[in-house]
Amino acid sequence: MSKYDISKILANEPIYAGKAKSIYKIEENEKEVLVEFRDDITAGNGAKHDVKSGKGYLNTLISTELFNVLEKNNVPTHLIEYIEPNVMIAKNVKIIPLEVIVRNIAAGSLCKKYPFEQGQVLKTAVTQYDYKNDDYGDPMLNNEIAIELGLATEEELVEIKKLALKVNDVLKGFFDEKGIMLVDFKIEVGKTADGQIVVADEISPDTMRLWDKETKDVLDKDVFRKDLGDVLEKYKIVAERIGCLK
Known about the structure:
Blueprint: H1 6-10, E1 16-17, E2 21-25, E3 32-37, E4 40-43, E5 48-51, H2 55-72, E6 79-83, E7 87-91, E8 94-95, E9 98-105, H3 109-113, E10 121-131, E11 140-141, H4 143-148, H5 154-177, E12 180-191, E13 197-200, E14 208-212, H6 222-225, H7 231-241
Helix pairs in contact: 2-7
């Protein structure tokens, strides 16, 4: 039972509404926000869109479980509390407008833009930053551009990369034990009121590529992107394997 009146908060206009989540202000505590995971699913920067009943619930469950796994391994996140079915109370952070991507296996845009073979295991985890800005199509950028745009300082970029690689180490091992390959993922990070950089937003099959370790079946949003079948069934498989859906 939350200390907040969730229905009252959700009756207000969100302070931010993204493609699949809405953020609400908590009047009683400016250091916290309410995150609602909606049933929307998109691909191609919103060009493809659908609503899948129960998808928000699954992503909230999975994100909560993975945030808890990270916290237990000394990776700071914005998670405070999970509230059934599709709500999370989180730290009110200032999002750094970068999509931080870590790749273990070549897939997706990496194979479209560079001469990698789909499924090629990379010798070392590859990290990249994309500028989180729909108007510019979320372009890739390097440290110098990020600094010049005022998105982050050099010191913050070093910390962000270290954080992303720690996330990769923790989740790669965690998923491996569940019979799942962590192909790649993207995270967003934010700064708390006291300046700490934490993993924010979500970590779910919307933001990761996950393949079955034995069959190489796709268990993530690529099922929706490429019309490979029932995307919710794949999300349920992930939730069941990591133990958050009985």
